[in-house]
Automatic annotation (TrEMBL), chain A:
One of its GO terms (molecular function) is ATP binding. One of its GO terms (biological process) is transmembrane transport. This is ABC transporter ATP-binding protein. It is found in: Cell inner membrane. It comes from Lichenibacterium ramalinae. CDD domains: ABC_NikE_OppD_transporters. Residues 8-262 form the ABC transporter domain. It is a peripheral membrane protein. Keywords: ATP-binding, Cell membrane, Membrane, Nucleotide-binding, Transport. InterPro entries: AAA+_ATPase (IPR003593), ABC_Ni/Peptide_Import (IPR050388), ABC_transporter-like_ATP-bd (IPR003439), ABC_transporter-like_CS (IPR017871), Oligopep_ABC_C (IPR013563), P-loop_NTPase (IPR027417). GO terms for cellular component: plasma membrane. Belongs to the ABC transporter superfamily. Pfam families: ABC_tran, oligo_HPY.
UniProtKB/TrEMBL annotation, chain B:
This is ABC transporter permease. It is a multi-pass membrane protein. It is found in: Cell membrane. SUPFAM superfamilies: MetI-like. CDD domains: TM_PBP2.
From TrEMBL, chain C:
It holds the Pfam family BPD_transp_1. Residues 100-289 form the ABC transmembrane type-1 domain. SUPFAM superfamilies: MetI-like. PROSITE patterns: ABC_TM1 (PS50928). InterPro entries: BP-dependent_transpt_permease, MetI-like, MetI-like_sf, OppC_N. It is found in: Cell membrane. The chain crosses the membrane at residues 38-60, 102-127, 139-159, 165-182, 221-246, 266-289. One of its GO terms (biological process) is protein transport. This is ABC transporter permease. Keywords: Cell membrane, Membrane, Peptide transport, Protein transport, Transmembrane, Transmembrane helix, Transport. One of its GO terms (cellular component) is plasma membrane. It comes from Lichenibacterium ramalinae. Belongs to the binding-protein-dependent transport system permease family. Its main location: membrane.
TrEMBL record, chain D:
SUPFAM superfamilies: Periplasmic binding protein-like II. Its main location: periplasm. Belongs to the bacterial solute-binding protein 5 family. Keywords: Signal. This is Peptide ABC transporter substrate-binding protein. One of its GO terms (molecular function) is peptide transmembrane transporter activity. GO terms for biological process: peptide transport. Residues 101-471 form the Solute-binding protein family domain. One of its GO terms (cellular component) is ATP-binding cassette (ABC) transporter complex. Coiled coil: none annotated. It comes from the Bacteria. It is found in: Periplasm.
Length: 344, 316, 302, 562
């Protein structure tokens, strides 16, 4: 492979709140290679969606948000563009073409008053300059490709005439319209029935194989991660707290938070098994804890070193990073299945 | 669809009957009457007056008068004007086009301006433009239309001499410009309140839509902002506006009456005032019925058009 | 189910939304109202106007009715009459303020009346529902079919105009919206549990209506009432302007305009001051209504 | 007839000409229709000659809308502006008060044998060359039909009084008609001067004579024929080339309806309107209008007298002393000079000063509150605790009404209110919409006091029976407009004398006495005789104000552009 298709460096996002700026994302960095799937995992408010919207430049403009860092996207011709530094028009030319996104709510993410064919074709018409007829032809192909039967007829359907799963397929078709190099999928299955979920995941995986696109898959559900991701990046309170290959992170999480997330996955093999959850809530970004942001909810918390300062991201193995002062201690002391389970 | 139409029509007819009862009651229970004009005829004796009243059916009990009027209405006979003996429908029909012209121009102006201001205000929310246009709309809603009309005449006709002071056209000048020239001031005055209403509604409808997910989807496609706003936000936001157009009809008609008075516009509103002065009951009732009819048709049309342009709505 | 432990990112939505954070709702309607600068300005203007109209005339050494025919059409801001004099040589300022008393009184009285009637009809229609409710609401619809100006003029042409009758006819053409708002509100409230709870506890219909439903519909009613004051002032002005309203020598803002129309060329201040007073008064009530709408979170559009 | 100076009143004012003595200084006497420029009216340009073919257009602006186009039907003053130009009368009144034949070949008189010495037998000769606008010849049959229709009980006639005295109307030949009068009635020639005729051959075919299709496309014998009507806006009349008299010189005559007086004036100012009819330019604009370039603006006297009508049927007004005192307390000078800009002329009579029967020797009122108080004191009206006078339990307190919306009159009312309060009389203003004011409220004397402009004459004739005869009190079952309920046997006798003879000297003697009587008894407090500010665009020749007609566009057939 010819190097990463997307490289994010030191991405930080802050929201203006009155005269202050409330930080939402700190110094996020990652790389994405063609054909690779990176799962971005975290609770609500962890900053994963903000990260993706910042990459897409879909956050409100400057005075309301402050975005710093770089997001280098490799263009079709091999040139590298910094998504965060380009003028709006240049970003628009890449958005929907080289980098595309699908959203969590298929029910509301489609425009209710336009036919889905037109909505899919719209992107092609703009990026490829096709006329309406040719664009619709292509849309029909895309609809078939995302597994919707009777494509020619569906083209003329309105969103409200489709089920949630169908709509998400339409969203995917729309995102794939211009063969993007990077697809960001923000919780694409959360709002769907479980059976539909796996269909969509399978579809995404299949399409990725066909096109070789890089996939950033955002979810709060680690069960899904295991199915789809090559690498995992866990976020908490706007920071990456653990990242690495899917196997090491899922089997041997080093960050207590990651461990908690894994434990909270409902398991089909445990019949009637109790749901495990992490107590407490995500800290208010306006008043973050002084040290480790997870410390207030962490079973392994020690005032020292946990509350002293924000811990740095440390290497915990090959390509496996973790943001915890005590990861080594905890790992040494604990059994493979972390202690959180007991707290249920 | 058919069932919807039938039930709506039935409801509208019921409303029309109610309207006619209320209108008839208000008019006929009040003091004064059409006999005043006959009483001033030289040599008219009280006995002759009584004869005329009898001939006009004015001496009968009110419910009976109503029934006679209404049963004639049912067969399409709206009666004759007491004043000039012409059929009421002909009298109204002669005046309606002027009113419709004024209303049409005003609504076109109001929709165009109001929608633009509302869209810009929503897109640039909290900008100076937004704050000023919102406050401006509120003030526009508060200016008495007749006063604004007077000031307009004073400034643009009397002081500056740019616009004609009232009337629909200069007699003998049948040019299009002649008509447009006369239309400018009254249409603007009538449009003022409507611009305010439309921009406020448009802005809030836009804001309802602008934060929705599908707008983000459109942006994610890399569409130019212009297209996002016009094709995606506006296309959704103007759907409730169609209903508004229906709801605004009574206000607009009322505003037209006021504007017609100030600008001596030869429309239905002016006729209404003149006929009230003469207690020309058949004409006054006719105008009330026609305006109620317009209002009902307007709201029905708004529903129908709304259903046609909004794929989500099914009428049944 | 997967969402149970970790809710989807609602807070993000709150952050991204550029609307005032919902989280601040707790700081109360008053706070939200006060944040509405135009509404506060409107309230201040109304207070000032009430004060000026009721106290001002006591401080001005002219009688609003005293005719001094030799000093007619004195210009404003020159000489002893601050706002000049009118066509009969009366002091314009004191007339403006006395007219304010009349216009505002009619505004408030018509509001009170139409709100009371509208609320009563809306309550009954909303609570009773069924045939009675439908019949009442059809009547509301029928009256709404008339452009209110038509109805107002039809009524005005027949009455002997004075403050009471003018108030009555304005109220008669202004209660329908309130009725609609209340009826709609009551219907949604009725569908909620607490009505049922009250009824199960044996409360009478009247009790439920007044104590439970009405109390909960009070926000929209207040907003509607405020906007009704604005409408009533405009209505009075128009009727009086046409000469069917408040009669000379008593002044109202509307009939001051009526008399001033023909002097637009020679004495424009006679038309400008009353027109401005109407605009300021109506705008103030509209601003307050708008602020209340936000503060009480009542979606009322009149 | 009550006349109001604002819009939308249903007053069927049908007044007519009177003899203009004072203003007719240079008038060419005689039977010709054209009576030279009036003293007091200065034409805009040097006299030019009329064109040989009809040319150009004149726009007449009116603040009320003509809507009745069947001239015999019940109509109002403004409708006559159309009749004057579209229809013909047997004869019409000149500005000097003489008659000029129109459809008649000559004015019937005792001298030429048209009227018998006792005034009962009439013989009218008609012009042989008159054709209706549709080409049908006009004949005596038309006259007979019209005279019969006017008194047809099924017809909503514009005037029955006078016509109902006719008996044995006989067509002698197509150009000659005769009839007999039930009794001598002096005003009848005057009444005929504003009785316009419609075509028998069309009207007799109407399915319902009260709802005539004729009104859609009226046909007359006047100098102009029907063009088109845009309701609510204007009526266009076209030159009738077959007209039997002089003219028409204008190709088009437009009668435009502009209900708002201010807008009407503005359109006159900007030149959209060439002449403002009816009440003309409002006095408020007089000073400004005088300075207009390109417009000739001047006050023109009207026959209407502004009055305070007191309902003498009420206890408070029964006492002559009260009426006298109220009159003394009226600051007439301020009303005329300040409120009406000095335009009207103060008067003590109910007749215009131009009438041949006008009495110039009546005592002049002077504003004297002290004398008014003394009068009331002497009559036993003593001030009560609140300053309002009382006598025998009757408080000196009453309402005053007029049509709502008449600005100048409302100002005068307010001034009077202040005047009267000074002498201990409280007047409350209670103005009403026209349809209420002029209905039973006025006709059946339900008002207390009213401010009205009245033209008391019957056409050009000074007969005021309708207003002062005790048989004309509608509230007591009479037919007439004696709404003040003035009941005086002396007045009845004088009125009877005046109407029963055609001898002018004899009539004048009766009317002079009657004027002295009403000045003394004061059923009406006379304020002033109206003068309207009228204006025409410079260059419009042939315009001549005529106090004897309702409308000064009476001779528009002879107008032309210089």
């Amino acid at each position: 492979m010819a190097g990463p298709v997307l490289e994010v460096r030191g991405l930080s996002v802050g929201f203006a709140d009155g005269r202050r700026t409330v930080p939402a994302v700190h110094e996020v960095a990652f790389t994405l290679h063609p054909g690779e799937t990176l799962a971005l995992v975290g609770e609500s408010g962890s900053g994963k969606s903000v990260t993706s919207l910042a990459l897409m430049r879909l956050l409100p403009p400057a005075p309301r948000t402050r975005v710093t860092g770089a997001a280098l996207l490799r263009g079709r011709d091999g040139t590298v563009h910094d998504l965060l530094a380009l003028p709006d028009a240049a970003v628009r030319a890449l958005r929907g073409d080289r980098i595309a996104m699908i959203f969590q709510e298929p029910m509301t993410s489609l425009n209710p008053v336009h036919r889905i064919g037109d909505q899919i074709a719209e992107s092609v018409r703009f990026h490829r300059g096709l006329d309406r007829h040719a664009a619709l032809k292509r849309a029909e192909g895309l609809i078939e490709r995302v597994g919707i039967p009777d494509a020619a007829r569906r083209l003329r359907a309105y969103p409200h005439e489709l089920s949630g799963g169908m709509r998400q397929r339409v969203m995917i078709a729309m995102a794939l319209a211009c063969d993007p190099a990077v697809l960001i999928a923000d919780e694409p299955t959360t709002a769907l029935d479980v059976t539909v979920q796996s269909q969509i995941l399978a579809l995404l995986k299949g399409l990725q194989r066909e096109t070789g696109m890089g996939l950033v898959f955002i979810t709060h559900n680690l069960g899904v991660v295991a199915e789809i991701a090559d690498r995992v990046m866990v976020m908490y309170a706007g920071r990456i707290v653990e990242s690495g290959g899917v196997v090491p992170v899922m089997t041997a999480p080093r960050m207590p938070y990651t461990a908690g997330l894994i434990a909270s996955v409902p398991r089909l093999d445990l019949k009637g098994g109790e749901m495990v959850s992490i107590p407490g809530t995500v800290p208010d970004p306006r008043a973050p804890p002084p040290g480790c942001a997870f410390a207030p909810r962490c079973p392994h918390r020690r005032p020292t070193p946990c509350d002293e300062a924000v811990p740095p991201l440390e290497a915990a193995g090959a390509g496996h990073d973790v943001r915890c002062r005590r990861w080594a201690e905890i790992a040494a002391a604990a059994a493979p299945r972390p202690a959180l389970e007991a707290r249920a | 669809m058919a069932r919807f139409l039938v039930s709506r029509l039935a409801q509208s007819l019921l409303l029309l009957v109610l309207v006619s009862v209320i209108g008839f009651g208000v008019l006929h229970l009040a003091p004064g009457g059409p006999m005043a004009q006959f009483a001033l005829v030289p040599g008219m004796s009280q006995a002759q007056l009584a004869e005329i009243a009898h001939a006009m059916g004015l001496d009968q009990p009110l419910p009976l008068q109503y029934w006679q009027w209404f049963s004639r209405l049912l067969v399409g006979d709206w009666g004759h004007s007491y004043r000039d003996a012409q059929p009421v429908l002909a009298v109204i029909a002669a005046r309606l086009p002027a009113t419709l012209e004024l209303m049409g121009a005003a609504i076109a102006l109001a929709v165009l301006t109001g929608v633009t201001v509302g869209v810009l205000g929503a897109v640039r929310r909290d900008s100076a433009f937004d704050v000023l246009s919102t406050a401006g709309a509120m003030v526009a809603l508060s200016i008495p239309t007749f006063w604004f009309g007077l000031v307009t005449i004073y400034v643009f006709s009397v002081k500056l001499g740019w616009l004609p002071a009232g009337s629909r056209a200069t007699v003998g000048d049948a040019s299009l410009w002649g008509y447009v020239h006369h239309l400018i001031a009254p249409a603007c005055v009538l449009a003022l309140v409507e611009v305010a209403v439309w921009s406020r509604y448009m802005r809030s409808a836009m804001l309802d839509v602008i934060d929705q997910d599908f707008v983000r989807t459109a942006r994610a496609k890399g569409l130019p902002e212009r297209r996002v706003v016009l094709h995606h936000v506006l296309r959704n936001a103007w759907l409730p506006m169609i209903t508004l157009a229906g709801l605004e009809l009574p206000t607009l008609l009322g505003g037209a009456l006021v504007t017609e008075t100030v600008f001596t516009w030869p429309g239905m509103g002016r006729l209404f005032l003149d006929s009230l002065g003469y207690r020309d009951y058949p004409v006054v009732m006719g105008i009330l019925m026609v305006s109620a009819l317009l209002v009902l048709i307007g709201s029905l049309m708004a529903d129908l058009v709304g259903a046609v342009v909004d794929p989500r709505v099914r009428l049944d | 189910m997967t969402d149970a432990p970790l809710a989807p990112p609602r807070r993000l939505a709150a952050l991204l939304s550029r609307r005032p954070a919902a989280g601040r709702a707790r700081s109360g309607a008053l706070h939200r109202f006060l944040r509405h600068r135009l509404a506060v300005a409107g309230l201040a203007a109304i207070a000032l106007m009430l004060l000026a109209c009721w106290l001002g005339p006591l401080l001005i050494p002219y009688d609003q009715l005293f005719i001094d025919i030799r000093h007619r059409f004195a210009g404003p801001f020159a000489g002893p009459h601050v706002f000049g004099t009118d066509q009969l040589g009366r002091d314009l300022l004191v007339r403006l303020l006395m007219a304010g008393r009349i216009s505002l009184t009619i505004g408030f009285a018509a509001m009170a009346l139409s709100t009371a009637v509208g609320t009563a009809i809306g309550l009954v229609a909303g609570y009773r529902g069924g045939l009675v409710g439908a019949a009442l609401m059809r009547c509301v619809d029928a009256v709404l079919c008339f452009p209110s100006v038509f109805l107002l003029l039809a009524l005005a042409a027949f009455i002997r105009p004075n403050v009471v009758t003018i108030t009555l006819i304005i109220a008669a053409t202004g209660w329908m919206e309130v009725a609609r708002v209340v009826q709609g509100q009551i219907r949604t409230l009725k569908a909620r549990d607490f009505t049922l709870a009250a009824e199960l506890m044996g409360a009478s219909g009247f009790y439920v209506m007044t104590n439970e439903l009405l109390r909960n519909a009070v926000g929209p009613i207040i907003v509607a009432a405020t906007l009704t004051v604005a409408r009533a002032i405009l209505a009075e002005a128009y009727v009086s302007f046409l000469g069917y309203g408040i009669q000379a020598p008593v002044a109202s803002w509307g009939n001051m305009l009526n008399n001033a129309q023909q002097y637009l060329g020679s004495a424009p201040w006679l038309a400008i001051f009353p027109g401005l007073m109407i605009t300021v008064a109506v705008a103030s009530f509209n601003f307050v209504g708008d602020g209340l709408r936000d503060a009480l979170d009542a979606r009322v559009e009149l | 007839m009550s006349q109001d100076h604002d819009e939308a009143l249903p007053s069927a004012r049908t007044q007519g000409p009177s003899r203009r003595r004072l203003l007719a200084l240079g008038a060419s006497a005689g039977a010709l229709a054209f009576a030279g420029p009036l003293a007091g009216w200065v034409p805009g340009a040097l006299a030019a000659t009329p064109p040989t073919k009809p040319k150009g257009q004149a726009v007449i602006g009116l603040s009320q809308e003509p809507t009745v186009f069947q001239p015999l039907k019940l109509h109002i003053e403004v409708d006559e502006a159309v009749y004057m130009n579209l229809f013909g009368t047997l004869w019409r009144s000149n500005p000097d008060g003489s008659f000029a034949p129109d459809l008649a070949a000559e004015i019937p008189s005792v001298e030429n044998g048209g009227i018998s010495a006792d005034g009962l037998a009439w013989r009218v000769k008609l012009r042989p060359d008159v054709k209706w606008h549709d080409g049908t010849p006009f004949t005596a049959e038309d006259v007979k039909y019209n005279l019969a229709l006017l008194v047809d009980p099924k017809f909503l006639s514009g005037r029955r009084a006078g016509h109902d005295l006719l008996r044995d109307v006989t067509v002698v030949s197509p150009t000659e008609i005769t009839w007999r009068m039930e009794r001598p009635y002096a005003p009848y020639p005057a009444i005929l001067s504003w009785t316009w005729f419609g075509p028998k051959h069309i009207l007799e075919k109407e399915a319902d004579i009260n709802k005539p299709a004729f009104a859609q496309n009226p046909v007359g014998t006047g100098p102009f024929r029907w063009g088109e009507r845009v309701p609510g806006d204007h009526i266009t009349l076209k030159a009738y080339e077959g007209y039997h008299g002089p003219g028409p010189f204008l190709e088009t005559l437009v009668i435009k309806y502009v209900p708002d007086l201010t807008v009407l004036y503005t359109q006159f100012q900007t030149g959209d309107i060439d002449y403002i009819g009816l009440q003309g330019i409002t006095p408020d604009h007089y000073d400004e209008a005088k300075t207009l370039k390109g417009q000739v603006v001047q006050p023109v006297p009207k026959a209407t007298i502004e009055n305070l009508a007191l309902n003498t049927g009420l206890p408070v007004f029964k006492d002559r002393a009260v009426r006298e005192a109220l009159y003394l307390a009226v600051d007439k000078k301020s009303i005329i000079e300040q409120l009406y800009y000095g335009l009207p002329v103060p008067t003590e009579s109910y007749l215009p000063m131009q009438s041949w029967a006008f009495n110039p020797d009546l005592p002049a009122q002077s504003y004297d509150p002290e004398k008014a108080k003394a009068t009331l004191d002497a009559a036993g009206w003593a001030p009560g605790p609140d300053g309002i006078r009382v006598k025998d339990g009757v408080r000196l307190e009453f309402t005053n009404s007029t049509t709502a919306g008449n600005h100048l009159r409302e100002q005068a009312q307010q001034l009077l209110q202040q005047n009267w309060l000074e002498i201990g009389a409280r007047m409350t203003i209670s103005n009403l919409p026209p349809a209420v004011m002029w209905g039973d409220y006025w006709m059946l004397s339900k008002f207390e006091s009213a401010m009205v402009g009245i033209d008391f004459m019957v056409g050009p004739d000074p007969d005021a029976t309708d207003y002062f005869s005790s048989h004309a009190i509608a509230a007591k079952g009479g037919g007439g407009q004696n709404t003040t309920q003035f009941d005086s046997p002396e007045a009845d006798a004088l009125l009877k004398d005046g109407a029963a003879t055609v001898d002018r000297a004899q009539r004048k003697a009766a009317y002079l006495k009657l004027q002295a009587l009403t000045r003394r008894e004061l059923p009406y407090l006379p304020l002033f005789q109206y003068a309207m500010v009228q204006g025409v665009k410079a260059g419009l020749e042939g315009y001549v104000p005529n106090i004897n007609t309702q409308e000064n566009c009476w001779n528009a057939g002879e107008w032309y552009w210089a």
